[in-house]
């Protein structure tokens, strides 16, 4: 064999070796990148939490009226505001009846029957839902029967805020929503911390989104890492809690996809909707 052939062969060998290591190394690398990728993620950019850290969180399970043989499956989140009341989003329950739901409290899981299961006796939707702007007044009360066994640990009511949050305050959102815009839902409860964005700034961000009915009204609030992205609620988190210092300030409502740098998540503004909530709560 001539020396040039030897050089050629060893070059091939090295190439081959490099190629196999790269090919073997790459998928792992990519998997890891995918997990921290923007804009999609899970409750995007979040962390695994425990129901004891968000004991007000419930999973709203639903089944279609034409498929009574099916199991109830996770549709939305919600927050326990008393032993027999859950606050969720109007868009979660519009056009449905109470018998289509179960509420699961005290569980870390999106599926299965861990925790406590109860039924919905009444749905009280905000009558001004979608009036004035798209997704405006996106709240509904669910009256539970039997009431939940509050235990001050994994099943606990959260206080409603009476003042809107300050822009820049760090809020915690949680849920079993999708791990990417249009992706798969999380099996375990996730949470993420995101700063509140002022309505003025948020309204500018949404200036060119959708038609003119998409506006950030005072009955909404926004949260997100502006200019950064990567942290947000996503599909299936709807109806769930946005909490600042142990008070419920927001209900997951809508957004342009999920976790985009230029589009904060939009929430029903609990403090602004407080009078509706108080008037519509059944007397104890
Ligand atoms: N509408 C969605 C749902 O039904 C929630 C959207 C929240 N989106 C967001 N980017 N924060 O679950």
Automatic annotation (TrEMBL):
Gene Ontology molecular function terms on file: serine-type endopeptidase activity
Q: What is the annotated signal peptide range for this record? A: 1-25
Question: Any idea of its EC number?
Answer: 3.4.21.4
Q: Which domain of life is it from?
A: Eukaryota
- By its UniProt entry, which PROSITE patterns does this protein fall under? TRYPSIN_DOM, TRYPSIN_HIS, TRYPSIN_SER
> What does it catalyze?
Preferential cleavage: Arg-|-Xaa, Lys-|-Xaa
Provide this UniProt record's keywords sorted from A to Z. Disulfide bond, Hydrolase, Protease, Secreted, Serine protease, Signal, Zymogen
In this chain the Peptidase S1 domain maps to: 43-282
A biological process (GO) of this protein is: protein processing
Chief localization: secreted
Fetch the CDD domains from UniProt. Tryp_SPc
Query: Cellular component per GO?
Result: extracellular region
Q: Where in the cell is it found?
A: Secreted, Extracellular space
PANTHER family, sorted: AT26814P-RELATED (PTHR24276:SF91), POLYSERASE-RELATED (PTHR24276)
Q: What family is this protein classified in?
A: Belongs to the peptidase S1 family.
Task: Spell out the protein name for this chain.
Answer: trypsin
Originating species: Drosophila kikkawai (Fruit fly)
Taxonomic placement: Eukaryota, Metazoa, Ecdysozoa, Arthropoda, Hexapoda
The protein's gene is named zetaTry
């Amino acid at each position: 064999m001539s020396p040039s052939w030897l050089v050629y062969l060893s070059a091939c060998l090295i190439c081959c070796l490099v190629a196999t290591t790269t090919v073997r190394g790459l998928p792992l690398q990519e998997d890891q990148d995918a997990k921290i990728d923007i804009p999609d993620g899970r409750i995007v950019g979040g962390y695994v939490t425990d129901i004891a850290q968000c004991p007000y969180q419930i999973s709203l399970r639903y089944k279609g009226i034409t498929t009574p043989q099916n199991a109830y499956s996770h549709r939305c989140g919600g927050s326990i505001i008393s032993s027999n009341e859950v606050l969720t989003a109007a868009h979660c329950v519009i056009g449905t009846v109470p018998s289509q739901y179960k509420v699961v409290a005290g569980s870390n899981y999106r599926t299965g029957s861990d925790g406590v299961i109860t039924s919905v006796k009444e749905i009280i939707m905000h009558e001004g839902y979608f009036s004035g702007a798209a997704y405006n007044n996106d709240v509904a009360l669910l009256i539970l029967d039997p009431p939940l066994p509050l235990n001050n640990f994994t099943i606990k009511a959260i206080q409603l805020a009476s003042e809107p949050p300050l822009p820049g305050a760090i809020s915690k959102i949680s849920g079993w929503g999708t791990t990417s815009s249009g992706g798969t839902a999380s099996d375990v409860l996730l949470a993420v911390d995101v700063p509140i964005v002022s309505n003025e700034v948020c309204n500018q961000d949404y200036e060119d989104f959708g038609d003119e009915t998409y506006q950030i009204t005072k009955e909404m609030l926004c949260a997100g890492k502006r200019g950064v992205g990567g942290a947000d609620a996503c599909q299936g988190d709807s109806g769930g809690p946005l909490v600042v210092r142990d008070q419920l300030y927001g209900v997951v409502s809508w957004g342009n996809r999920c976790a985009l740098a230029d589009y904060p998540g939009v929430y029903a503004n609990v403090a602004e909707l407080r009078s509706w909530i108080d008037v519509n709560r059944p007397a104890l």
